[in-house]
Write a structure and sequence with these properties.
Elements: E1 2-5, H1 7-18, H2 22-45, E2 50-56, E3 59-64, H3 72-93, H4 98-115, H5 123-136, H6 141-161, H7 168-186, H8 188-198
Parallel strand pairs: 1-2
Antiparallel strand pairs: 2-3
Length: about 200
């Protein structure tokens, strides 16, 4: 499996470094590793091969082998792996010394809350979207879900821009998510067609 770090994540770390908090820098990296390890172990549990893992501003992004051929249930399990690992990480943080405990709990709780938002491509968005597809199997559902995520992120970015400079790290994350949603929205019809006609998932 290949590992890499997205340039946008390096920018986010630079913003953290500019605030002069190296401890937070280290805690963010460790917390993200824990989160991605959860996805990796979940994938192994359901027999899914992970090809690449890229650290993103909002967490991580894994490339699964033959992802489009996987069942929605397996995709849901993989998506749930990260949040579950983060919850375990929060529980283990209570065993750390007081200063480290507070820092790690705060960062991991933020990562958990962020990733559980029902916005594509966050874990919460994937879990909800795949759950709906597994239950209703509507060819336009993915398109609707990605479109709604785009509009919600657009409103979020506008609000955050009014809160600058305090909201700068959140603006970076939101803009990156916004660009990812646009990329997936552009291929939405190809994805729906593949699932409906090739994989025969939809009814």
């Amino acid at each position: 499996m290949k590992y890499s770090i997205h340039p946008a994540f390096l920018l986010l770390l630079l913003l953290i470094a500019l605030y002069g908090d190296i401890a937070m820098y280290s805690a963010v990296m460790i917390s993200l590793v824990i989160h991605e390890l959860g996805h990796f172990l979940a994938a192994k549990c359901v027999g899914v091969q992970v090809e690449t893992c890229k650290i993103m501003p909002y967490g991580g992004e894994m490339t699964l082998k033959h992802e489009m051929q996987l069942s929605y249930r397996k995709l849901i399990v993989v998506a749930m792996g990260g949040p579950i690992a983060t919850i375990i990480g929060i529980a283990l943080s209570f065993l750390l010394p007081p200063l480290l405990k507070e820092l790690f709990i705060e960062i991991q709780f933020f990562i958990l809350c962020l990733n559980l938002l029902p916005i594509w491509p966050l874990d919460g968005g994937r879990i909800l979207c795949f759950t709906l597809l597994n239950r209703y199997a509507h060819s336009k559902l993915f398109e609707y879900y990605v479109s709604n995520s785009f509009y919600l992120l657009t409103v979020t970015i506008i609000v955050l821009l009014y809160l600058l400079p305090q909201s700068l790290p959140f603006v970076v994350v939101s803009i990156f998510l916004w660009s990812k949603v646009i990329a997936d929205w552009r291929i939405r019809k190809y994805r729906s067609a593949f699932e409906k006609h090739v994989m025969n998932r939809l009814t």
